[in-house]
Amino acid sequence: MLNSSESNDFKSLVLNKTPLIDVRAPIEFKKGSFPYSVNLPLITDEERHLIGIKYKNFGNEEAVMLGHKFVSGEVKEKRIKAWLDFKKDNPNAMLYCFRGGQRSKIVQEWISEYIPEIIRLKGGYKAFRNYLMNEIDNSPKYFNPLILGGHTGSGKTILLKKIENSIDFEGLVNHRGSSFGKKITGQPSQIDFENSLAYELIQKVNKGFMNLLFEDEGKYIGSINIPKNLAEYLSQGSMLVLETSFEERISITFDEYILNAQKDYKKEFEEDYFVFWINDMQTAMKRIEKRLGSMRYKVLNELFIEALNFQNKKGSLEKYKNWIAYLLKEYYDPMYEYQLEKNKKKILLKGSSSVILDYLQTLKLP
């Protein structure tokens, strides 16, 4: 049974976290896709390239004929099976191509020979992407921004995860937002970040939150930048400053930079993990040499090497706490104090995690 059902109810896609079948070629998917989407392409990258040449030289009809030649017989059966299997596991799944044109229509027709209906996105990827970007630009109309500040290691991310009306930029960009913030798995594309951010904003706003809490960040987090309009709006937000003891900050940073990082590297690189981790840490230290100054950089390096040797000899990570204490005191703290002094944001409150949580409970929530 053939159908051509389309939907442009993009808001419901976001709120329902609707699974999506992206039938674009893998190269297109990698440049940017949507949360809850899976790439089950109609044509491969190479096929797309050859069809494009055919289209340029001989027009649409010849290009379509070549596409049908590529996707026929067992190849066609295999691709249809992949779409049907996903639809079986995700009954409310929809599909899309770039503009909601030929590719998604062909897939829709082929699938409809086996099941009653699958809906495709009207306007495809381009229309949905435009909707999400507009929602980011318009989101400042719907909430009051609160900005969570605090020294490195104070546990801002830990606190954010306890609060429903928060948006964790660092989680979305897969980066800790510092010189040592790089993670093994790498960052998403700028487009993927923006799409995920739009989902978060739409979902939070729909819940009726009058206030949204964000960690205090620069314009860039690693290689990802916060959309301009939103960044400017957040720069006007009032601050809550999280205060944590120096000892606790050492412990939190130790868990993040050393303990958990080494575990992650071990999962990824197995027996070679230590070499890769050391190399990345020394590269990160080199990045801050100029700001730190040659003498303090030398001390920091020596403390790190001392900790490495102690780990190799005793199997203990304890010495890294000396390295972290020096890094916090000599690098992060002076930089934070300078930034706080320059900061024009109004400070509403300074206090511990429990003090800030209590304050947030007093704000009007839905």
UniProtKB/TrEMBL annotation:
Single annotated GO MF: tRNA 2-selenouridine synthase activity
PROSITE patterns noted in UniProt: RHODANESE_3
Keywords, sorted A to Z: Selenium
Coiled-coil region: none
The keyword Transport is assigned to this record: no
Rhodanese domain residues: 14-137
Record PANTHER family: TRNA 2-SELENOURIDINE SYNTHASE
Protein name: tRNA 2-selenouridine synthase
Organism listed in the record: Arcobacter nitrofigilis (strain ATCC 33309 / DSM 7299 / CCUG 15893 / LMG 7604 / NCTC 12251 / CI)
Lineage, opening ranks: Bacteria, Pseudomonadati, Campylobacterota, Epsilonproteobacteria, Campylobacterales
